Amino acid sequence: MEMVIMAAALIIGLGALGAGIGFGLLGGKLLESTARQPEMANQLQTKTFIMAGLLDAVPMIGVGIAMYLIFVVAG
């Protein structure tokens, strides 16, 4: 049971870490691209928001799997 809870904690923690790194890289590339081509700022921002939504889905799926492990497998 303790191993299942540790696995769930690792899933949530590493998912959050990966999302944080991903958002940092995504924001940095948006700023670089906007500074390089300011006339494309609106298109770049739209595409960045779409990618941010997709990037945010991965940790949410990880939380769902972790909750399944905690409440169904360990329970």
Automatic annotation (TrEMBL):
Subcellular location: Cell membrane; Membrane
Domain of life: Bacteria
Name of a matching Pfam family: ATP-synt_C
Database matches in Gene3D superfamilies: F1F0 ATP synthase subunit C
Record-annotated site: Reversibly protonated during proton transport: 56
Keywords noted in UniProt: ATP synthesis, Cell membrane, CF(0), Hydrogen ion transport, Ion transport, Lipid-binding, Membrane, Transmembrane, Transmembrane helix, Transport
Main location group: membrane
Entries under HAMAP family matching the protein: ATP_synth_c_bact
Function, in words: Key component of the F(0) channel; it plays a direct role in translocation across the membrane. A homomeric c-ring of between 10-14 subunits forms the central stalk rotor element with the F(1) delta and epsilon subunits.
Similarity remark: Belongs to the ATPase C chain family.
The name this protein goes by in its record: ATP synthase subunit c
Gene this protein is translated from: atpE
